[in-house]
Amino acid sequence: MGGGKDKLVDGLYGLGWAGVKKLPEPVAAALGRKIADVAWKRRGKSVLRLESNLARVVPDAGPERLRALSQAGMRSYMRYWMESFRLPAMDPRRFGTDVSIKDEHILREALASGRGVIVALPHLANWDLAGAWVTGHVGVPFTTVAERLKPESLYDRFVAYRQSLGMEVLPHSGGAAFGTLARRLRAGGLICLVADRDLSSSGVEVDFFGATARMPAGPALLAQQTGAALLPVTLSYGDAPKMYGRIHPEVEVPGTGTRAEKTAAMTQSVADAFASGIAEHPEDWHMLQRLWLDDLEERP
């Protein structure tokens, strides 16, 4: 049964990559909105979880406002997929016109310093498009980490797709990723990590919109170990095809404290930067899973 389901899921993603990128852009965008609205109206677990998460981000929103936000959120999420399916076929010159990043100089100056750079992002707007902007517009390759998806063939598709955009992709599992990332940073390289949801048991507890969540320790630990600059980045969608972003100031390593205390303080600073971007554009935060600890404790 599981094997059949895996083949079906992989086939659907394969169809997306093969089919959507051949559609005219307005047609693909309209298809994404249609799929999003159908999913939203069904009120499934993912939609209800998104709404619950948005209720923490916008605590004064009533039921009507939350439903409108979750519908906009699903449309934003499907826009991410439609764009991602089309990215390999996109003219690289568009990365410099469709994507506008505020304080780009912070990234360029950090790269020029030769220290190595860690870019940490939340699940806002289209992080793959941001990666394509880095490789296609800034002209710098980078290394990232991908969660192992099932079926394996689907994970392989994701890896091949991101490699086609100029990214080096390491598997999240296996334990070897941290050492490889550290080596890339010591060589003055760039790594980009989606870092608003912890996938391991070694995450750091942070205050996030007034409640405790757990976020990855990796970005802060890598900055301490290698001397690399840690830069939070937040993104948001404008009218299609525009996407905007902001590079936040470097999160400095505290001068005093234990390694654990420094890691906690730095991860909280990253979480605060993420929260500022998410609060400005909550509909573009694609968090359809449980994140806060008290939500995780509700699981049977």
Structure description:
It is a single chain. The chain is of the alpha/beta class and 300 residues long. The protein has 12 helices and 9 strands. The strands form 2 sheets. The chain has a 7-stranded mixed beta sheet, sandwiched between helices. The protein has a two-stranded antiparallel ribbon with strand order 6-7. Strand 6 and strand 7 form a beta hairpin. Helix 10 (218-226) crosses helix 11 (259-280).
What is the secondary structure topology, with strand pairs?
Layout (H helix, E strand, L loop, with lengths): L1 H19 L4 H18 L2 H13 L5 H24 L8 H4 E4 L1 H9 L4 E5 L5 H12 L3 E5 L5 H13 L2 E5 L5 H10 L3 E5 L9 E5 L2 E5 L2 H9 L2 E9 L5 E5 L11 H22 L12 H4 L4
Parallel strand pairs: 1-9, 2-5, 2-8, 3-4, 3-5
Antiparallel strand pairs: 6-7, 8-9
Which properties best describe this structure?
single chain; 300 residues; alpha/beta; seven-stranded mixed beta sheet; two-stranded antiparallel ribbon; 12 helices; 52% helix; 16% strand; globular
Quick structural gist:
This protein is of the alpha/beta class and 300 residues long. 52% of the residues lie in helices and 16% in strands. It starts with a helix and ends with a helix.
